[in-house]
Here is the input.
Amino acid sequence: MQALVVVAHGSHLNPDSSTPTYRHADTVRETGVFDEVATAFWKEEPSFREVLRTLNSEEVYVVPLFISEGYFTEQVIPRELRLAEFDVDQWDSDGTSASSTTLRATDVDKTVHYCGPAGTHDAMTDVIVRRAESVTGDDEVGEGFGLAVVGHGTERNENSAKAIRYHADRIRESGRFDEVHDLYMDEEPEVDDVSDHFDTDDVVVVPLFIADGYHTQEDIPEDMGLTDDYRTGWDTPTEVDGVNIWYAGAVGTEPLMADVLLERARDAGAAVGTAVEEVREQTRAGAD
Here is the structure.
């Protein structure tokens, strides 16, 4: 038997924080390729510490639904799952290339394949592009458009910005959009000045956050000038300094995100059959 466990941050304050995690887990569950699909959270129940004990499967694939490598993926999650032999060097990562490592949990008789975060997988690039398609309603969006990939940014964890730059670079190299820039909330270049960074008249803004919350629904829209008060909402697009801003909201809410979870597990050795292709087709059909 094989199980998938999706681990996420969750929130005591935002009841919608866990919603994308549940939805993506449901999508994977419906494929039927895992005997069990479970979710666990740092700030909600069930907790990281308990989740392995709820499973009957002996083979468990754990995928962190986090954007970047860092404190939670390297310290908190392995500790709470009691993966005592985990060492971040086992990932052999430069900050964006963590794959997976196979370990034994110390208090349950299970083989645990601990995967790198969903946010640094190459398939995440496709989710960002799909988010741009969703907000514009155009499956061919790109020509005549700029794309801003937005992250939190922090001097405390350099990997936070690395993940944002990684995907922005990949999309830029694809040549799909006229311009692609990575922008941040807490470091330069800042998202506040989004219109200053583009020559195009239309810019899609995709924040690399797992769930919509304080940052994506309050801070960023107000900082960009979409609205003076987030409670009154904003138009899509909204013209700011002569530029049409198409604000997409958190990338983690895009249904295609379920594909990234499957690809992470498949890369770690999970038998998923044609589920990746099925989910890609299903999520696009649902959006259309």
